[in-house]
Backbone:
């Protein structure tokens, strides 16, 4: 998998991790003519198959490579999980592909609580980078803004069925939008030898392998970044080669960390040194703090009157910002439960059962964190992460009230429904949307990263995944992580010219 014809390049950037965030970074750097070496802990062999007919996934199989339980210790909620996938493409081998943009308010609404919740950038700063990411994602969506969800750059249009339009009107009266969820779903007709329509290895990295400036090293697990106290920057990464068992050292002009929220946090902690005894870039002591996640639950709802199944899923946006407690919100993704209901859509049939997935939010606080565990070690002899996080009462209440809200909305639109048993999923980690542990803030007191995802303390190290989120909006995080990554690469490109 290594393109060995590359000349070594003094300005070479090392990108660590080939999930959507790292893939976006490599894509943008190479576009600028900057040489990239990407280190990926796992292998590049996406598996599975997907058959899609007229926009409906009819057959889908993917082997589960997700792991859990061997890299952390939970000291908050006992059921706390850390799901990860150490393969090329990371968790995009497993994801659903929902890619809503954040709204303008998501970047500043937390300021109502405290300045620590103000992102160091605005929605308008991110728009061009959302577009760059969206162009790689082959998105299906409805091409119009709805309240609290700006429209993005889509490739394929899909609209709500007619009988949902009344529900959408009722939602709008409440200041909410009901639309088709923007989905990185690829073309309507598809047969693919992988389990997800988009995965960042197949869709972004594999095409980059033709570029002679790109070197992709698989089975290379980054262990530590090496800080040079003399040069006041990081000048190398030490990685474990899983093929040979050896430890290698790789120099670079800059380093982009995109190992997923907890993987990136761990790498920074593991890179402690004399100048940064609490972890690289952690002079203010907040690395790992502000850990947040989306509480998630799923329930089925029986309707008295049938309605068209939503394929792809529908999406009810959050309640208006000015009517909500700051940073507490929910979103509703509405799909079908049975394959037979999905098939009914080919002939305009209707169904009497809906499946609804709700994502809630939590206010990120210092007391919830990821940090090295003193006694337990991973396969490389480095500390496991201690994860201390729980969903407090206000978070659970917000999730519970989301059930009634949906029910009353449908009722108002003429569809009486009963919620079946709620699957017990309210534990941290279940949504696989951790964020915040290497957060951005203009003030180093509140953030490890600056407005361009560079460590305040070490500007030639850029961290660009959801660990950089200042707050966690109720929207799925990956598109915003990719957009931040693309934006950070613009700045890094400028930095490299002047360094
Ligand atoms: C079932 C499921 C459904 C999901 N659905 C959605 C969805 O609909 N929408 C959405 O936005 N998100 C969804 N997600 C979450 C989404 O998959 C992640 O947000 C996204 O993959 C994060 O991208 P990333 O590049 O930041 O991290 P990852 O995808 O985790 O990639 C990290 C990469 O870094 C590599 N790596 C880690 N540590 C090291 C190291 N030390 N050295 C070298 N390499 C390393 C890993 O092997 C991996 O390739 C879902 C997740 C799951 C599991």
Residues:
């Amino acid at each position: 998998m290594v393109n060995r014809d590359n000349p070594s390049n003094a300005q070479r950037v090392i990108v660590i991790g080939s999930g959507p965030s790292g893939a976006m970074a490599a894509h943008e750097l190479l576009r600028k003519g900057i040489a990239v070496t990407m280190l990926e802990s796992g292998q590049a062999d996406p598996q599975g198959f997907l058959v899609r007919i007229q926009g409906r996934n009819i057959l889908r199989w993917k082997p589960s490579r997700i792991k859990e339980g061997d890299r952390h210790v939970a000291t908050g909620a006992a059921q706390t999980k850390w799901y990860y996938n150490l393969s090329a493409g990371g968790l995009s081998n497993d994801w659903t592909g929902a890619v809503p943009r954040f709204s303008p308010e998501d970047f500043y609404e937390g300021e109502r609580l405290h300045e620590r919740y103000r992102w160091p950038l605005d929605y308008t700063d991110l728009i061009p980078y959302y577009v760059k990411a969206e162009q790689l994602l082959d998105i299906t969506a409805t091409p119009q803004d709805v309240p609290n969800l700006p429209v993005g750059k889509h490739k394929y249009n899909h609209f709500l069925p007619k009988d949902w339009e009344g529900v959408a009107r009722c939602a709008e009266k409440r200041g909410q939008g009901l639309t088709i969820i923007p989905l990185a779903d690829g073309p309507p007709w598809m047969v693919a030898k992988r389990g997800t329509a988009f995965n960042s290895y197949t869709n972004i990295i594999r095409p980059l392998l033709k570029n002679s400036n790109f070197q992709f090293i698989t089975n290379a697990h980054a262990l530590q970044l090496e800080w040079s106290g003399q040069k006041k920057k990081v000048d190398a990464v030490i990685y474990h080669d899983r093929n040979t068992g050896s430890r290698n050292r790789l120099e670079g002009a800059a380093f982009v960390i995109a190992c997923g929220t907890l993987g990136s946090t761990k790498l920074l902690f593991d890179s402690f040194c004399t100048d940064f005894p609490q972890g690289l870039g952690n002079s203010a002591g907040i690395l790992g703090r502000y850990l947040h996640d989306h509480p998630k639950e799923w329930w089925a709802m029986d309707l008295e009157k049938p309605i068209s199944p939503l394929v792809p899923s529908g999406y009810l946006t959050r309640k208006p910002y000015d009517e909500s407690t700051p940073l507490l919100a929910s979103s509703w993704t509405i799909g079908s439960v049975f394959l037979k209901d999905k098939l009914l859509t080919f002939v305009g049939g209707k169904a009497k059962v809906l499946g609804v997935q709700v994502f809630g939010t939590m206010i990120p606080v210092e007391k919830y964190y990821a940090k090295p565990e003193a006694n337990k070690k991973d396969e490389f002899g480095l500390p496991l992460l201690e994860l201390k996080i729980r969903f407090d009462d206000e978070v659970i209440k917000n999730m519970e009230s989301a059930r009634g809200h949906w029910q009353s909305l449908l009722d108002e639109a003429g569809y009486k429904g009963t919620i079946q048993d709620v699957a017990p999923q309210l534990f941290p980690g279940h949504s696989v949307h951790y964020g915040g542990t290497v957060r951005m803030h203009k003030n180093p007191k509140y953030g490890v990263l600056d407005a361009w995802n560079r460590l305040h303390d070490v500007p030639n190290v850029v961290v660009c995944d959801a660990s950089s989120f200042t707050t966690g909006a109720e929207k799925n995080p990956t598109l915003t992580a990719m957009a931040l990554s693309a934006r950070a690469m613009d700045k890094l490109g400028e930095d490299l010219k002047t360094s």
Observations:
- The radius of gyration is 22 Å.
- Residues 1-46+85-138+197-292+434-499 form a domain with the FAD/NAD(P)-binding domain fold (CATH 3.50.50.60).
